[in-house]
Amino acid sequence: AAAVVRGVSRGTSGVTISGWAHDPDSTASVDVRLRVDGRIIGTVRANFSSASFVARHPGYGKLHGFRKTLSLPRGKHTFCAQAYNVAGTPGTPAPSSCLTTTL
Questions:
Q1: How sure is the predictor about 90, in pLDDT bands with cuts at 50, 70 and 90?
Q2: Chain Cα centroid distance, residue 77
């Protein structure tokens, strides 16, 4: 499985982290564990349409995007995403993808 943090942005409702994730052994959506500054903030399902995913991985379908909006103070933060296998060895986590930015 693999997850990629594609972007982080601050809007009126908070900070949104977005990206895509998939298990190369399956076309099904996967769960993604999100961390901010090393702290787990929750798990989301990568089941949103993602054009950037489709461009890189044709044949897997388009529903592999994820996003989560949360409240964070301004400043420098590190955002990480970690996908979980749905095939092969289900539930096995993959290495994290991280992005550090100042908001």
A1: confident
A2: 16
Alpha carbons 35 and 18: distance in angstroms, whole number = 12
At residue 56, φ and ψ (nearest 5 deg) are: -90, -30
| β-bridge pairing 48-49 and 63-70 | antiparallel
Going by DSSP bridges, is the β-strand pair 2-11/14-22 parallel, antiparallel, or unpaired?
antiparallel
* Residue 35 dihedral angles phi and psi, to the nearest 5°: -130, 145
In single-letter form, the type of residue at position 16 comes to: T
Rounded to whole angstroms, the Cα distance separating 76 from 90 reads 34
pTM for the full predicted model = 0.91
75 pLDDT more than 90: yes
Strands in 31-36's sheet, in edge-to-edge order, are 39-45, 31-36, 76-83, 97-102
Three-state DSSP class for 79? Answer: strand
